[in-house]
Design goal:
It is a single chain. By secondary structure, the protein is an alpha+beta fold. The protein has 2 domains: about 90 residues, Arc Repressor Mutant, subunit A (Orthogonal Bundle); about 90 residues, DNA Binding (I), subunit A (Orthogonal Bundle), CATH 1.10.30. The protein is about 35% helix and about 15% strand. The protein contains 10 helices and 7 strands. The strands form 3 sheets. It has a 3-stranded antiparallel beta sheet. Strands 1-2 form a two-stranded antiparallel ribbon. A two-stranded antiparallel sheet has the order 6-7. Helix 3 packs across helix 4. The structure holds zinc ion. Zinc ion (ZN) binds next to strand 7 and helix 9.
Length: about 210
């Protein structure tokens, strides 16, 4: 095999809050494991089936065993990865979407590149609902940056269940910009409660 055994992974793909950090072999490690396993161009996957580059053959029981995970955690992790558009899967194979964009050729500097993952339909698949009057304003690159920075965690109440909105910290209706610095992930409840107020105004009005 003449394929490189190492692959560079952009830092923000590993440190994104999306990946829960629990246990010795956590989700970050699992993600690195998957990317490394998919780096073999053509050959046999970790569980003996033939695969192409970007693919990993899937044996849920053996994979859970190998990672020391419950099959429930494995299933939920794989569905979440599929939900954010990082991978597709069928019964026997996991396919990492845009694999070459997920990894950085060794010659390229710097290693910290970003990836294209959040078209509006992908964001919908991730459970992000944008208010329609806002949806066209926030550039895809900004949405992506916000999602990778905040994860699926409401930045006001720390809820982890959606639906989520992109909240303009300084309200858009009052001149707030569509920049990552002015946008946070907020659960629908917080976003609607906050309305066209700043967090300070919202706090001041909440007994
Ligand atoms: Zn909230």
């Amino acid at each position: 095999m003449d394929e490189p055994l190492f692959t560079n992974i952009p830092r923000d793909l590993i440190t994104a809050p999306f990946f829960r950090r629990d246990g010795e072999f956590g989700e970050r490690e699992a993600w690195i494991w998957l990317i490394a396993a998919a780096a073999v161009r053509c050959g046999t996957g970790p569980f003996g089936r033939p695969v192409q580059r970007s693919e990993i053959d899937l044996d849920r029981r053996k994979l859970a065993e190998q990672w020391g995970w419950t099959s429930r955690h494995l299933d939920s992790f794989l569905s979440r990865l599929a939900g954010v558009g990082f991978m597709e899967r069928d019964a026997d194979v996991i396919r990492i979407v845009d694999f070459d964009a997920m990894t950085v050729p060794e010659s390229d500097e710097p290693a910290d590149t970003s990836i294209e993952l959040s078209s509006p339909s992908e964001l919908r698949a991730m459970g992000v609902r944008m208010r329609s009057r806002e949806s066209s304003h926030i550039p895809a690159a900004v949405r992506r940056e916000v999602v990778l920075r905040d994860g699926w965690i409401c930045q006001y109440c720390y809820a982890t269940d959606g639906p989520f909105h992109f909240d303009h910290v300084f309200p858009r209706s009052r001149g707030g910009t569509d920049t990552a610095a002015n946008i946070k992930i907020a659960c629908e409840t917080c976003n609607l409660r906050k309305g066209a107020r700043t967090p300070e105004e919202w706090r001041a009005a909440t007994p």
